[in-house]
Amino acid sequence: MGSSGGIQIPNRLPLLLSHEGVLLPGSTVRFSVDSPRNMQLVSQRLLKGTSLKSTIIGVIPNTRDPGQDIDDLPALHKYAPSAAVALKLLQVTSYFHSPHLFLVINLAIIPCIQIGTAGVAVQVVGSNWPKPHYTLLITGLCRFSVTSLLKERPFVLAEVEQLDKLEQYMTPSTHSVSAEDGELGELSQRFYQAAVQLLGMLDMSVPVVAKFRRLLDSLPRETLPDVVASMIRTSNKEKLQVLDAVSLEERFKKALPLLNKQIEGLKLLQKTRKINPDNEKRVTDISYIFLQPLFPGRQFNLEDEDEDEDGDDTASLERKVHNANMPDAALKVCRKELKRLKKMPQSMPEYALTRNYLDLMVELPWSKSTKDCLDIRAARTLLDNDHYAMDKLKKRVVEYLAVRQLKTSLKGPILCFVGPPGVGKTSVGRSVARTLGREFHRIALGGVCDQSDIRGHRRTYVGSMPGRIINGLKTVGVNNPVFLLDEVDKLGKSLQGDPAAALLEVLDPEQNHSFTDHYLNVAFDLSQVLFIATANTTATIPPALLDRMEVLQVPGYTQEEKVEIAHRHLIPNQLEQHGLTPQQLHIPQDTTQAIISSYTREAGVRSLERKIGAICRAVAVKVAEGQRLDFKGLAHVDKAAPPEMPIVIDHIALKDILGQPLFELEVSERLTLPGVALGLAWTPLGGEIMFVEASRTEGEGQLTLTGQLGDVMKESAHLAISWLRANAKTYQITNSSDPLEGTDIHLHFPAGAVTKDGPSAGVTIVTCLASLFSGRLVRSDVAMTGEITLRGLVLPVGGIKDKVLAAHRAGVRRVILPKRNEKDLEELPANVRADLDFVMAANLDEVLNASIDGGFPGPSGSLTHSQLTSKL
């Protein structure tokens, strides 16, 4: 390589044809190699070579369409014996930029001259994803021209002529262009001054700016156009112009306008910052816009105007890691990943994965939190304004605020609101967050059957991402939000794991201070997060998970509470959503009561809100048409006459808008024959009334059960039959000792499409069968619930409040409950307790006496004192 003329490159070089960028002498660029010819060059020349000479290659910039395959290159020859071959070479030259390409169409030798850059490959990295390719890190040495092409396979080999002095790019030179060199010296001085001016406008703390400063002071003036053009923001076309400038004077003339353009752009940005301070950016960020980092192994694509300013800047990312105030364990992991990122080429798949991981780590709120609003009076006022009733939930929130005033380091409680749909569990969680002044985030868990949704995926998997807990923290930006885990009772289970088991660590106050997401693989403190879970029932929640939560029951509303909620919240909201005002529409309270009793039968208020919305839409049509509602389904034809304001919705208008009533009081109508009784059932949707019907025919003493009954309810029916057969003669139910002798019994539970199960129908079945066998009617205003035993005892059951509210909605006046459920009556509203007559029964003879019309005889054939008292 050495010669008397100085350091020389080999006169034969393999050519790397690339359309990814332009390599200038003195710059370092990363190239991705995936075409067969270039792959052969790497594998046969760079990887197998043992000397420094084998690592020197020529880089030819390719400005053709990137979609055209380089391997379409036809056979190249050193000589062209005819004009036809010359024309073929003319076609070949479309692969290269062509300012200096010329062809002489004759029988003489046809030179093919091309300007390129000789470079040394300092790093070679191979990968098979997404397809086989190599990534080369090449440092430019000097310019060369192609004098002839020697061969095309397995890679292109050409004879070249060196155009630049190699020494000036490798070591500081004692000779440099000076002001005495005429026009060239003047251009050199202007270029240097412009470079110094650009540096003065940038932040010297940025590594690339500091490197620019060192290069400006150490390199000879004749190398500055190439070095500066490779660092500032320029397009490939502009770099090609600098590369093609073989003359030093021409090179200065090509590079100086590019430098001046960057200076003008910076001045414009600085003026914009002064005019609009709200959009002010740090000068550090501007430095990254206008300078390309020349760190070894990095090449930034600044051709895209919309690219993020901090997109691939590891220095900026390192500052973010330092300023994130993360724990020592997390900081150690981030620093380790940053070191790997700096050594990793962008084309590798792991680069994007590592960058995404670090971006997530710096965005997590390791130490950011909001200050709680601890004003108890203000909290009570806000909760009362947002929600009517729900005294138990409001009391629990106020208790939390009071304890937080006394102890600032209190861990966040883990609450579980259990109740039927539409009672406001989710909206209460949102109100709690607003009361505390915290951020709110809802996580829907219904149907989730993969534990990775909670814990995240490990980063070894393609498409891995953090779990919903960590992603929610990233979204809210603080470490003490209110997290609402909605529908926690509807979690699934699959081959991908059990998400309910993954929640055990999240919802355990003794463990969640070091929750480890699989994606992060470092501990995150969740102890300050206020978790609120919602569920319709606790039956489907695993016991271990239920044990970690403080369960607060949210029962359904009474009719009076629904009326109040409708006039406080629902009607104003619907008026606003439909563009109406109270001066245009008025719904009286008796109309609201009619909607609740005749058009909705639910524990919550969702259907009620939909019915109110239907009324608003009907009135909006009349208001928009300018017609007068006459409550008979008609409207005056005179469209010029405005409707009377406000439009009052009475029972006639209600029927006209909503149609015929959907629900009627059918209790008294259905209890007109013996063998019918009214029971109370609990469902996840709230309490419901349940009719039990029985009939008998001649037969062989068989029992038939219909109505989609579960095993527990079937067992209750058999228990009732056994008790009646054993006590038929004692209670004078039938004249025969065996009521089933020569008789078949059919028990039916209406609404056969609905599955029914549970032990609480035992007393209802006994009453129904006793009425059937004795021929006496069951009182039409009585409903009952309770589990039975073979000895005739009545055992306690659950869901008392929901069941009693269902009876109250249905117009029942007497409710028979187990004696041991008397304590549950304290949870009922005062107006409900005043409207209903409660009979607390300890055994079945008390149940029969209170439910059968006219009383039921006791074992002795007469009414006992307790039965007389109950009857009175």
TrEMBL record:
GO terms for biological process: protein import into peroxisome matrix; protein processing; protein quality control for misfolded or incompletely synthesized proteins. NCBIfam families: lon (TIGR00763). InterPro entries: AAA+_ATPase (IPR003593), ATPase_AAA_core (IPR003959), Lon_bac/euk-typ (IPR004815), Lon_lid (IPR054594), Lon_proteolytic (IPR008269), Lon_Prtase (IPR027065), Lon_prtase_N (IPR003111), Lon_prtase_N_sf (IPR046336). ATP binds at G419, P420, P421, G422, V423, G424, K425, T426. ATP-dependent serine protease that mediates the selective degradation of misfolded and unassembled polypeptides in the peroxisomal matrix. Necessary for type 2 peroxisome targeting signal (PTS2)-containing protein processing and facilitates peroxisome matrix protein import. Its EC number is 3.4.21.-. One of its GO terms (cellular component) is peroxisomal matrix. The gene is lonp2. It is an enzyme of class 3 (hydrolase). Keywords: ATP-binding, Hydrolase, Nucleotide-binding, Peroxisome, Protease, Serine protease. A motif (Microbody targeting signal) lies at residues 870-872. Residues 13-263 form the Lon N-terminal domain. This is Lon protease homolog 2, peroxisomal. The keyword DNA damage does not apply.
